Amino acid sequence: MSRGLTPTIEAEFAKKNLVPLLFVEVQFVSGWVRLWSGIGAIVWNGQTWLGVALPNGTVLGSISQLQETTDGSAQAAALSLSGIPSTAVQQVLNECRPNNIANIFLGAADQVTGAVLADPYCAWSGYTDVPTISDSGDTCTVTISVESRLVDLQRAREWRYTNEDQQLFVPGDIGFEYVGALQSLSITWGKGAPVFPPVPPGQRVAKR
Asked: Residue 126 falls within a domain, yes or no?
């Protein structure tokens, strides 16, 4: 088995004829939007996915080529949806936020019944960027760039060894409680303590 494919999907992909399916879910402000590459609504993974294909053969959604590299660098994918009324552009912009989650699943359908075979696998997972709008009059096309999760490796970590950050990870832990006070604490270092009993006059104390 390769890349986590189920035996059913792997066997289907090896056939000469294949009915591929794509599922896309994107997190927006008001909730998740779930779309698939077919016609009408379909239920998979306990969720309802809306089709981006029309009976006349028009396909409103598209996905750019998914690329992988051997050096582990983060690659981006582009999700596009056309046919959106121009009057809804502002609503689309209000719904989109950077760094929301987006997932792309690749699967297959049974060639006789059309049912979704178990189980589509996650071919891409990443974070959304700001959308771009292409207006063509009455309708527009919205394209959202999705950065691979590998982009996390390029981001600086902003956690600090402070009590506030520690509470986010382990609430109630007081290991960093006095870190803030140390910033203004004055400590005399290297000054020896008084010698007892007193050293007789003329006698020196050997330094350690």
From this structure: yes
User: How much is the pLDDT for 73?
Assistant: 58
Judge whether 200 lies within some domain. no
Same domain, 167 and 180: yes
Look up the pTM and report it: 0.67
How many domains does the structure of the chain reveal?
2
3-state secondary structure the chain: CCCCCCHHHHHHHCCCCCCEEEEEEEEECCEEEEEEEEECEEEECCEEEEEEECCCCCECEEECCCCCCCCCCCCEEEEEEEEEEHHHHHHHHHHCCCCCEEEEEEEEECCCCCCECCCCEEEEEEEEEEEEEEECCCEEEEEEEEEEHHHHHHCCCCCCCCHHHHHHHCCCCCCCCCHHHHCCCCCCCCCCCCCCCCCCCCCCCCCC
* pLDDT tens-place string over residues 116-166: 998 898 888 888 988 899 888 889 999 998 887 655 555 555 777 788 888
In a domain, 203, yes or no: no
In a domain, 108, yes or no: yes
